[in-house]
Design goal:
The chain is built from five helices and five strands; from the N terminus they run ααααβββαββ. It has 154 residues and is of the alpha+beta class.
Length: 154
């Protein structure tokens, strides 16, 4: 009886607050995997989606398709999973827009972001590599935050 009551209450709570975010271990694994590429040019000037896919163990078929950061975020937002203001928690996907197009970073949860395709955003910035830790989402001129969402993958 008690087990049934706990299961019912858990299901009710889950229905009220929505699905939980990605498990902490998955977030830490994604960040650790992404950090192995800091200082490299692995995905090129505009490889932010490919970098996020790599970090989370996805491909363009199972993660964020190349050049689809905006539509991916809009899909999450339409499901009620988007958040419009910072701060973003550790491991969240942070989406932005600038004169150069749309971009996605991984929040490190401390006001910094793990980013791919940095030189496509601001040529010559930082150490000159494509994959860097940056101090704000999308360092491109005239950038603005679209929002953030927990990584939707298990």
């Amino acid at each position: 009886m008690r087990r049934t009551l706990v299961a019912v209450l858990s299901a009710l709570l889950l229905a009220l607050v929505g699905a939980p975010p990605a498990q902490a271990a998955d977030v830490e694994a994604a960040i650790a995997r992404g950090m192995t590429l800091v200082g490299t040019d692995t995905f090129g000037e505009y490889g932010c989606e490919d970098f996020v896919d790599f970090a989370y163990g996805k491909t363009t078929a199972t993660g964020i398709p190349r050049d689809h950061a905006r539509s991916f975020y809009e899909g999450l937002k339409a499901k009620g999973l988007g958040h419009s203001s910072l701060p973003a928690p550790r491991g969240a996907l942070v989406f932005s827009q600038s004169d150069y197009g749309y971009h996605v970073d991984i929040s490190l949860g401390n006001g910094t972001y793990l980013s791919g395709g940095v030189q496509g955003l601001s040529n010559g910035w930082g150490d000159g590599s494509q994959i860097q830790i940056i101090p704000e989402p999308d360092i491109a001129p005239n950038s603005r935050l679209l929002g953030w969402a927990y990584a939707p993958w298990k």
